[in-house]
Write a structure and sequence with these properties.
- With 516 residues, this protein is of the alpha/beta class.
- It is 34% helix and 18% strand.
- The strands form five sheets. Strands 1, 2, 8, 9, 10, 11 and 18 form a seven-stranded mixed β-sheet that branches. Strands 13-16-15-14 form a four-stranded antiparallel β-sheet, with helices on one face.
- A hairpin with a 5-residue loop joins β10 and β11.
- α1 packs parallel to α7.
- It is globular and about 65 Å long.
- The two termini are 37 Å apart.
- The model has no long low-confidence stretch (mean pLDDT 92).
- It binds flavin-adenine dinucleotide (FAD).
- Flavin-adenine dinucleotide (FAD) binds next to α1, β2, α3, α7 and β9.
- The site of flavin-adenine dinucleotide has 41 residues, from α1, β2, α3, α7 and β9.
Length: 516
């Protein structure tokens, strides 16, 4: 078995991982990326852009206020203040890295999105912001002498030494062989968990590997039950599902049923422009009742407004629908995970030698709900914070990595258990949840978990993570932000505050009843 050595191992090559790698100079950094860069990350899929309070009349305080409002009394005001204060510098850094923000005259053009009181979302190349940002960061990383990228490599397990902490990771190399990378510091930048759901906007690698690996070591986690659903993914035979931006509804598109009734009528005063979680719930409930939900954007695409949505237009035509003529079939879809591995301001986890940044981390910025376009910002600011802290940290001597437990690794691929797990998450952990469904789903997950073979390491991660997420949702007997319980439809004010989203350990009674 091959063994490698580096100062810093960065697992994941989205915006967070790339920013961390660049900032860690002069440390030697090894970045793992499981596939071709443009195909592997949510970062590359981001359409809207990156939020920053830099427009006329806007302020850090206003952006902080909007973030806290959307987070439903659960975000950490200190962390929110710190991250938003870094937004201006983050944009400067991206520009210095070659990102060309769209401009109106000599200013960056800024767009209004749901939940923001000011136009503050900066775009690149219209609705291809993520792709352009990732491409620019890749050029920088490719030119950086301290960074080496291993494409086609995937981490499967963290290696920890007793009393020392994390000392590297067990990986599958580009030829599909197991290998060990010994590192003084290990950074998780593995993104989100959307792929655990049947319907998602997230790409193939958003399977929560990093979060599961951290959970396996007992790292502190928070907000695991909080998953943001996007209300309008195009319902076609594709995985991931293409996203139809909220801006379409902003431009006049309406959600309707196949019978022509308005989906959002009676749900919220803002109708189709209600908060994302409210719209996602309405779409989900109609679908559960057997009604087809469509986004009627014919008026938008038959007018001049169509010019603002070239990506959506192309996508619809690709799937054989002319959006100027026919409404688009939509579904809610898992989109963003607010929960993650708890980190401090520098990205340190509760385990020595282990750091996290980006969607896999819980910084306190999002609480129970994410404000649109705050996540790319978090990925840049926290990625840089991790890299900078590692660059100046005094390296501890860490022992050589222990031999990995299992040589062989079963591929997950089309495994029927994996398909069942994704269906189960969709039905039990979707936009509307209840105790009975969660209990049944948890029991089935725990039973199948026990039946896994030692070589099913990747499946084991996913089953364990799903069990932890369902357990957290079952224990949260209230509705808050993206977590909606039909049997507990009100927010429990006694659970307000940033620490109330920290995952608590199950009580003995909960453990006995399976809610563990
Ligand atoms: C369709 C879509 C549109 C979005 N639009 C916006 C937007 O407009 N604005 C905004 O702020 N946010 C948006 N988001 C959310 C945002 O893109 C993500 O939250 C953010 O990019 C996360 O960055 P990241 O670096 O943490 O993770 P990612 O960009 O997902 O990168 C994770 C990396 O880790 C790799 N990885 C995973 N597992 C392993 C493993 N085991 N070993 C090695 N590598 C691994 C992945 O392949 C990938 O390279 C959008 C998300 C989606 C899906």
């Amino acid at each position: 078995m091959d063994r490698w050595q580096t100062d810093v191992l960065v697992v994941g090559a989205g915006v967070a991982g790339l920013c961390a790698a660049l900032a860690a100079a002069p440390r030697r950094v090894l970045v793992l990326c499981p596939d071709e860069p443009a195909r592997t990350s949510s970062s590359a899929l981001a359409q809207g852009g990156i939020a920053a309070p830099i427009g006329p009349g806007d302020s850090v305080e206003s952006h902080v206020g909007d973030t806290l409002d959307v987070a439903c009394h659960s975000a950490d005001p200190e962390a929110v203040g710190r991250l938003i204060s870094g937004a201006g510098d983050a944009l400067e850094f991206l520009e210095a890295s070659g990102v060309k923000f769209d401009r109106a005259g000599n200013r960056r053009s800024l767009h209004l999105e749901a939940g923001h009181r000011f136009a503050r979302v900066a775009h690149v190349a219209g609705d291809r912001s993520g792709e352009a940002i990732v491409a620019a960061l890749w050029s920088c990383v490719s030119a950086a002498p301290h960074v080496e990228v291993r494409i086609g490599w995937r981490a499967v397990e963290l290696i920890a030494a007793s009393g020392v902490g994390v000392v590297g990771a067990r990986v599958i190399d580009g030829r599909g062989h197991p290998a060990v990378i010994h590192a003084r510091e290990t950074v998780l930048a593995t993104g989100g968990i959307g792929r655990l759901y049947r319907h998602t906007t997230n790409g193939e690698y958003a399977t929560g590997d990093g979060l599961a690996m951290a959970l396996a070591l007992g790292a502190r986690t928070a907000a695991l039950e909080f998953v943001q659903f996007h209300p309008t993914a195009l319902r076609v035979d594709a995985d991931p599902l293409p996203l139809l931006t909220e801006a379409l509804r902003g431009a006049g598109a309406r959600l309707i049923t196949a019978r022509g009734t308005l989906v959002m009528a009676g749900h919220h005063v803002l109708g189709d422009l209600a908060p994302r979680d409210v719209v996602a719930r309405a779409v989900w409930e109609h679908a559960q009742a057997g009604e087809e939900v469509l986004l009627d954007a014919t008026a938008v695409f038959a007018s001049d407004k169509a010019r603002a949505f070239p990506g959506a237009h192309r996508t619809a035509l690709f799937y054989g629908i002319d959006p100027a003529v026919a409404p688009l079939p939509v579904t809610a879809a898992a989109h963003y995970h607010m929960g993650g591995v708890v980190v401090d301001a520098s990205g340190r986890t509760s385990i020595p030698g282990l750091w996290a940044c980006g969607e896999v981390a819980y910084t306190g910025l999002h609480g129970a709900n994410r404000l649109a376009s705050n996540s790319l910002l978090e990925a840049v600011v926290c990625g840089q914070a991790v890299g900078t802290a590692i660059a100046v940290a005094k390296f501890k001597s860490r022992p050589a990595a222990a031999a990995p437990k299992v040589e062989a690794l079963a591929a997950v691929g089309m495994d029927a258990r994996w398909a069942r797990l994704r269906d189960r998450m969709w039905h039990a952990m979707g936009p509307v949840r209840d105790a009975a469904t969660l209990g049944t789903a948890l029991a089935a997950t725990l039973t199948e978990l026990e039946e896994l073979r030692p070589e099913d390491v990747l499946l084991h991660h996913r089953f364990t993570l799903v069990a932890a997420m369902i357990g957290a949702a079952a224990r949260r007997e209230e509705s808050r932000g993206a977590h909606w319980r039909s049997d507990f439809p009100l927010r429990d004010p006694s659970r307000d505050g940033p620490r109330a989203v920290y995952s608590r350990r199950p009580t003995p009674t909960e453990r006995r009843s399976g809610v563990a």
